[in-house]
Amino acid sequence: MSTNGHLLEAESIAKYYGNIVALKDISTHVNAGEVTCILGDNGAGKSSFIKILSGVHRPDGGRLLVDGEAVQFNSPRDARAKGIATVYQDLAMVPLMSVWRNFFLGAEPRKGFGPLGWLDAATAKRICREELHEMGIDIRDPDQPVGTLSGGERQSVAIARAVYFGARVLILDEPTSALGVKQAGVVLKYTLQARDRGVAVIFITHNPHHAYPVGDRFLILNRGRSVGMFDKSQIDLEELVRQMAGGRELAELQHELAVLRADAS
Amino acid sequence: MLPAPAAAGAIGMAETTTAPAPDERLVHVGPLTRILTRPDIGALLGAIAIFFVFSYFARSVDWLTDPGIAAGWTDQAAQFGIVAVPVALLMIGGEFDLSAGAMVGSSGLLLGYLTVFRDLNIWPAIAIVILFGLAVGFLNGIVVVWTKLPSFIVTLATFFVLQGVNAALTLNLTGTTAIQEIDKASGFDAARTIFATEITKYDFKVKVLWWIGLTMVGAWLLAKSRFGNWIYSAGGDPIAARNIGVPVARTKIALFMMTSGTAALMGIITALELRSIQAKEGIGNEFIYIICAVVGGCLLTGGYGSVIGTFFGAAMLGMVQLGIIYAEWDSNWTYTFQGAILFAAVLLNTVIRSRAQRAR
Asked: What is the CATH number of the domain that holds A80?
């Protein structure tokens, strides 16, 4: 029993889809001001796992703990109420709408009372610019449509929005997968900004080169099982890549390739 | 808090607190470009162009300066523009309402029925008609939200149902195609003063004030209210909007109710103005409202548009309607004009929008 007060902890999580074992015996945790990376190839169970953490699915085994207390999420709303915000790949942003309108979408600041209350656009724009600036994102014009931002900038705005609306745990679902090298770097930078503001970050990726520079802890998944969890001090990038590719499998594959090459020559 | 890993420095941790350097990809956007990228600018330019086109072709009358002429085309424009306001909001919210035209007829006929055949005072009758409008809008909305069928189909069905009901019940009731003598209702004169009189010696209609007022309310809602933000998001990306906590279904139903409710208002205005109502009233105007909205910069796919632009779109179509008469052309050309305006507006708006996205 580990009730030593991790901000978010998953304990022996299991998930079955019919007779298919999607996840079995997965444990990890994250604390304020830390980044836990969840790595794995396609089909390793990353999406199933974050859907459990963010309240979309319920686990078939194991339990979730927030601040050391067992919790049960019946919907993403429950998770959000506990301060767990998920930034999905589709970002929940409307491309034709301006940055500030997107930033406050669904939680618009208002002036005046009741049905006559109007949108406090000046405050919204100011807070939006300040918050983004705080994260080191320089949006020149909050009236700019989100559709005109680059993929990396959009991710960064989504992260800033989650942080502003009180996320204690930020789950980032493959935030860098669709981005170019430079843009991915920008997103990694803002991930660290969020961490430095005391947010616990869970970073899902299949790219160890993106995970290693930002992570404090690495959980590697393969075919729904945990390959292992490593603190940064326990593992270097090369070993992380090797573990992720499935260590022995990769060695075998290299051996087979070598044989093939020998045959060919 | 753990120290930043060394590798993080390599991806630019250190430079975050320094003053942001201007991005070399950003070009200074001048005020002219800024104006030209507004969604409503095409409609304004179009309205000005049409005005001057008819100042030439309709020069047999004093098109440019005679207020009586202006009273004529603003009357016609208000006829389109009042319902076009909620139709535009609905389109920005990602939906259509093809039943709005027939609803004008249904509402006027209901008012006639209540006052002429049920001897109701005009005021409770007006209240009932407005409630009827809201109810039809609620039905349209709830069916669209529940069935997830395209609103184009759902409201096309409503349109045809209403069209049949209007014609059949009117014939049944009166043996003719209209309900007459609505002005015998008690309270008629007071109601007509508010909804359908002439307000100046040039015969400007009070309807025009309703048009301007509703446009202002619609524009305010869209730009300055939380509901406006929800409208944009419901049309722009309903799934994203729902994920972030916008009540998309409620927003859409409210928009349908506003559209049918305003169509009911237009039915009341028409019945009071003409003192009678034709069973065919409003039929065909559903597309005019949509043309006004599209000319005004609304995207057929939702998420983008302008109520102010829609106002100019209605002004444009009003001018065409009257201008063709004053120019002494065959009035059948009106449709051709409307089609050409629609096509030109869509082209122009597409150009403007792509500029809007490149200008930044």
From this structure: 3.40.50.300
